[in-house]
Amino acid sequence: MSLNRRDFVLLGAAALAAPALVRSAQAQETTLRLHHFLPAVSNVHRHFLMPWAQKVQEESQGRLRVQIFPAMQLGGAPPQLFDQARDGVVDIVWTLPGNTPGRFPRVEVFELPFVADARARPNALACQEFAEAHLREEFADVHPIVIWAHDGGVIHANRSVTRLEDMRGLKLRFPTRQAGEALRALGAAPIGMPVPQVPEAVSQRVIDGAVVPWEVVPSIRLQELVTHHTEILGTPTLYSATFILAMNKAKYAALPAELRTVLDANSGMAAAAMAAKPWDDQGPIVRAQVERRRQNTIVQLSAEEKQRWIETTRPVVDSWIAGSRERGFDGAALLENARALIAKHGA
After folding, report:
1. How many alpha carbons fall within 13 Å on the CB side of residue 71?
2. What is d(CA 150, CA 215) in angstroms, rounded to the nearest whole number?
3. In terms of Cα–Cα distance, which of 238, 217, 216 is closest to 36?
4. Alpha-carbon torsion, ordered 332, 336, 337, 338, to 10 deg
5. What is the pLDDT of residues 163-222, one digit of tens each?
6. In Å, how far from its chain's centre is CA 142?
7. Is it the case that residue 9 has pLDDT exceeding 80?
8. Among 25-34, 118-127, 223-232, whose mean pLDDT is lowest?
9. Rounded to whole angstroms, how far apart are CA atoms 261 and 266?
């Protein structure tokens, strides 16, 4: 087959254009910076955030990458993370709404005492479904990728807790405003602080222990700092904390449509199911490791004792409902919906 002068000109033009096309494709590659508060050895980092980022990269054929910065490597303190995403200091954050007490009152319904399931998956799925219906206004300053809650928290302390009276005066770190109110109702002396501060606070005897789920224990070496662990078995459990993976709105809007589609496919309920796994999968492993430590003791509240705790903390729930009216929403209706969703996803 022979080529005329016109064909040679067209082929030459195509060859010259090829590098520009490659550069154009490369220009569409985007790297998002994800900032969070726990170290890289933490279970959420290793078993949720990293697999989630890898899945996004693979499904975008490498065009959308998520670079994770753990342990506040990009600066600031954990309570500032939400605003870092809002203001575009970083692209995505993983944080607790409870780090800024009272700022996000509706999501607190999942943090009230004896509302959450003992497992993470029902809480995570229920929280995300609830968020889609009720929390758009609350988190309007960011683009929420997923909102979820963990499994039942455990009391880790330097003395044994087997009954209500043992809580009296116990200085315990709490993660959220409602968990703090529950501990206060139970007679403890709650002290709020971001979880990375717990090891030093325990070592310096500023606190006697903390309430956290099993999953987080190794990342803050809590099993080395205290020797007593009290579980509140069954559903409902003492407390849960909520989390949000939040993205800067402008950064999300600026993504090409096909990359937003990939991100959307890995958001919402799909991401909530992934987010629950570190707690449900790794929690029992951590618990078994702690149980093997000769000096550590794990106990469970009896059913009768748990009922005492439920009754003692009921005023915390009533107070939140009363406060919701002052803030312009129906807390009783939200609580009923949250409980129904937890039961639905826990079935």
Report:
1. 7
2. 9
3. 216
4. 100
5. 999 999 999 999 999 999 999 999 999 999 999 999 999 999 999 999 999 999 999 999
6. 16
7. no
8. 25-34
9. 9
Contact 53, 281 (CB under 8 A): no
Confidence of residue 328 (pLDDT cuts 50, 70, 90): very high
Amino acid identity, position 30: T
Rg (CA), the chain: 24
192 close to 262: Cβ distance less than 8 angstroms:
no
Residue-wise pLDDT tens digits, 99-136:
999 999 999 999 999 999 999 999 999 999 999 999 99
Going by C-alpha positions, the residue among 63, 39, 67, 42 that lies closest to residue 53 is 67
**22 token code pair:** 């490659």
Strand partners of residue 173 = 191, 210
Which tokens belong to 229?
């662990």
For residue 317, the surrounding DSSP H or E stretch is helix 303-326
Nearest CA among 228, 215, 216, 214 for reference residue 156: 228
